User: What shape does this take?
Amino acid sequence: MSAKKISGLDSLPSSVNVSSRQAELELPAEKVSIHKNGIEFRSSTPFHEWAEMTVSMQSPLDESRLSCHGVVVACAGNKHTGYHVSMLFTSLTPQVEKQLGVMARSEFGVD
Assistant: This one.
């Protein structure tokens, strides 16, 4: 995945919720990079690779809510500087896949 931070857009949701059995996070939008097949984010909490997670976010394009399931494919960092987490979405419906594709190609995501 390539990375691009979300920054300075008034139309963005204020947060993205990420949850797993390990933890539940509410992340500021500027800490999340949206891709058509996953997300990347910074966390003070480490996540185990292959941990299953659920992500909930509201599309700034049409205000619809998206809920995606996925797995952590990478988590690098330490407790002092934080962790960079990469998550790959699994089992996307065609409708959610289309919405994520639009979000990823917009000014607040990456392709």
Observations:
- The radius of gyration is 13 Å.
- Residues 1-13 have pLDDT under 50 and may be disordered.
- The CA atoms of residues 45 and 83 lie 7 Å apart.
